[in-house]
Design goal:
Layout (H helix, E strand, L loop, with lengths): L2 H17 L6 E2 L10 H5 L15 E13 L18 E16 L2 E15 L7 E19 L2 E8 L28 H6 L4 E10 L2 E8 L27 E8 L6 E9 L2 E11 L4 E12 L2 H11 L17 E13 L4 E10 L5 H11 L6 H18 L6 E9 L7 E10 L4 E11 L4 E11 L13 E10 L1
Parallel strand pairs: 1-2
Antiparallel strand pairs: 2-3, 2-19, 3-4, 4-5, 5-6, 6-7, 7-8, 8-9, 9-10, 10-11, 11-12, 12-13, 13-14, 14-15, 15-16, 16-17, 17-18, 18-19
Helix pairs in contact: 4-6
Length: 477
């Protein structure tokens, strides 16, 4: 089949499957990730039930999108890439559908599905190639209002945790779940990802909630890949281990809202704590901490590669052997918003399992051309970096994040946003800036530019790309 014909067939297939649930849906804002829609949370005690959707009502959104992305290559790499490299230019077509259906007064069905076609291309040869067709069932679950302010959920659910703005140590279900591993859009890291199949029970009180969930192991861990294709549930990315989570939060008033988390996976416990408190009317302080026994980041990546068949069991471990030990992870900072809709977020992020300056240097020395075992060291190094993007973990030990956003920038409905992510171990930087224009209720246009800065032997200076440039067009049905 010719390439373009195959592309058209695949895109129509993805469009039809993903948009079908919303053929007769009413327009509504999609719920964000793990949020409980207010109409469901408050019904029937605190809301006029006559205003709620009737039985059989279907609400949701469907969005069509096109992305054009350029990823200029970094040529003078501290650790060369062996073999073929990823495409420099990417074109993505997708349809994003989110819906909720009220089957009975106490039963809701939620769905979140994304069908996409990704292709690499070059301006010299504009024909599309290397097609990757995907259908991601991000969420599909049933919610039962079992008792007053008590809910039972069953199905694939995207569970988000954490109050941090660029790093979430307590977001225990983020690993391997991201639909798009290339983006640095932090909102999409929580919303645009695969949920896990689970049973969740949640009890809502006047000043807090308590929830417990169980997610069974349904498949062996999936291999790490930069680009994936196909459909199915991809359970190897979401249900690769038996997991439990208990979460308790309480609102003490005056903006003070602590949360405790108790998480169990693969015979190991992890603990988490989230806190937000108002500094004044414009500023909020946040703190997010997690701790538990685990391997170093580099060793964890290598062991996952062995477990999934990427590396042979007897391969040299350039990450260095080491037993699991208790390690701390932290994200803390402030969020400041003015009446003119200027928002500033500053955070300090720490991962005790991440690479120190000395450990980065050892990788650069092991992977340099001519070094003993350089070929295998290079493979392990780039696998580690791809693994980090897929599990959404800090590769380095310390980062500082600053983000500025201004709504109605220069003109109405134009939003400007920029951030700097600084690696404190290697003194390198990721700088990102973009414009998001809401043309009308149907159309949105986004333009984003990103640049890696740093010495050749630094976290961002040694990346395979020197930056990212993205143009995105979205249409809401």
């Amino acid at each position: 089949m010719p390439v373009l014909a195959k592309f058209r067939t695949g895109f129509i297939w993805a469009l039809g499957v993903a948009a079908a649930p919303l053929g007769h849906a009413q327009a509504a804002d999609p719920p964000a990730g793990d949020a409980v829609p207010d109409a469901i949370l408050n019904a029937p005690a605190q809301v006029d039930v006559n205003r709620l959707p009737g039985n059989g009502a279907l609400t949701g959104t469907t969005m069509l999108g096109t992305d054009f992305e350029s990823l200029p290559r970094q040529h003078d790499l501290a650790v060369p890439i062996r073999g073929a490299r990823d495409p420099v230019n990417l074109m993505r077509f997708y349809v994003d559908s989110r819906a909720q259906w009220r089957a009975t007064p106490d039963v809701y069905l939620f769905s979140s599905i994304k069908g996409s076609v990704l292709s690499g291309y070059s301006f010299a040869s504009p024909s599309l190639g290397n097609l990757s067709e995907r259908l991601d069932t991000r969420e599909l679950y049933v919610r039962w209002h079992a008792a007053p302010q008590m809910f039972v959920d069953v199905g694939r659910i995207n569970v988000n945790n954490g109050v941090g703005v660029s790093y979430n140590p307590t977001d225990f279900f983020k690993e391997h779940a991201s639909v798009d591993t290339l983006t640095h859009d932090y909102a999409s890291w929580t919303n645009d990802r695969l949920g896990s199949v689970m049973l969740r029970i949640e009890k809502v009180f006047e000043t807090g909630t308590i929830s417990a969930l169980y997610s069974p192991k349904l498949a062996d861990p999936a291999a790490v890949r930069q680009f994936t294709s196909g459909g199915g549930l991809q359970l190897g990315r979401t249900n690769f281990a038996q997991r439990f989570l208990v979460k308790v939060n309480h609102d003490f008033g005056e903006g003070v809202s602590p949360e405790l988390l108790f998480y169990h996976e693969a015979s190991r416990w992890k603990f988490g704590f989230n806190l937000t408190t108002n500094i004044n009317q414009a500023s909020t302080y946040f703190l997010e901490w997690a701790g538990g026994n685990e391997l170093s980041f580099a060793n964890e990546a290598f062991q996952y590669g062995v477990a999934t068949g990427t590396f042979a069991a007897g391969s040299t471990n350039f990450a260095g052997a080491g037993a699991a030990s208790f390690r701390n992870k932290l994200s803390t900072g402030v969020n400041y918003t003015t009446q003119s809709k200027l928002n500033v977020m500053l955070s300090y992020n720490y991962n005790q399992a991440g690479l120190s300056r000395a450990e980065w240097n050892r990788w650069f020395a092991a992977g340099r051309p001519g070094a003993p075992g350089a070929v295998l060291a290079s493979q392990e190094y780039w696998y580690m970096r791809t693994y980090g993007a897929q599990v959404r973990e800090l590769a380095g030990r310390q980062t500082v994040f600053l983000r500025i956003e201004q709504a109605n920038f220069l003109i109405h409905d134009l939003t400007f946003a920029a951030f700097v992510l600084a690696d404190a171990e290697t003194n390198s930087y990721l700088i990102n800036a973009g414009l998001d224009y809401k043309v009308n209720d149907r159309w949105r246009v986004q333009v984003t530019g990103e640049k890696d800065l740093g010495k050749r032997q630094s976290e961002f200076g040694s990346d395979s790309t020197s930056g990212e440039y993205l143009v995105s067009l979205k249409y809401y049905l």
